[in-house]
Amino acid sequence: MKNLIITIALAMIILVVAPQSFAKDQQALKNRLAYLNDISEVSWVRYDRNNVYVGFNKKPRDLASIVGGAAFFGNQAYSFGVHVWAIPANNPNWKVGDPYYCEATGRGGRVKDNDCR
């Protein structure tokens, strides 16, 4: 019975603390990647947990640096791995499986995967 009470108490604490932590991490991610809005080729930026979707109105020559940098800096701001997707700006409702330019993942303070060329 004592273990059940402890388990319920821990679950309640997690349910109260986790959403606050998520909101804090999400805001830190948005603040850290705010510079993306200043890049002329970027039309929009969308955030969904640890995924960042960047709509490019044209494919820049330094796409790999932009996307890799966003993955690196996003990972620094977020307490989890961050995936950054470069997407054509004409597809704001993009979902996995739709065409995209490239993607990069920041994890452990480094860019682990970057298929941008």
Beta-strand percentage range:
25-35%
Question: How many extended strands?
Answer: 5
Q: Provide the spatial order of strands within the biggest beta sheet.
A: 1-2-3-4-5
Low-pLDDT ranges: none
Mean pLDDT value: 86
Our Rg estimate from Cα atoms comes to 17 Å
Output the helix-strand order.
Answer: HEEHEEE
**Count of distinct structural domains:** 1
The span between the termini is: 58 Å
Q: What is the helical fraction, as a range of percent? A: 25-40%
What class, by secondary structure content? alpha+beta
Question: How would a textbook summarize the main sheet?
Answer: 5 strands, mixed
The 3D shape can be described as: elongated
State the helix count.
2
Short summary:
By secondary structure, the protein is α+β, with helices and mostly antiparallel strands. It has one domain. It has helices spanning 2-32, 63-77; strands at 42-48, 51-56, 82-88, 102-107, 110-114.
How would the blueprint of this fold be written?
Blueprint: H1 2-32, E1 42-48, E2 51-56, H2 63-77, E3 82-88, E4 102-107, E5 110-114
Parallel strand pairs: 2-3
Antiparallel strand pairs: 1-2, 3-4, 4-5
Any key phrases for this structure?
2 helices; alpha+beta; 117 residues
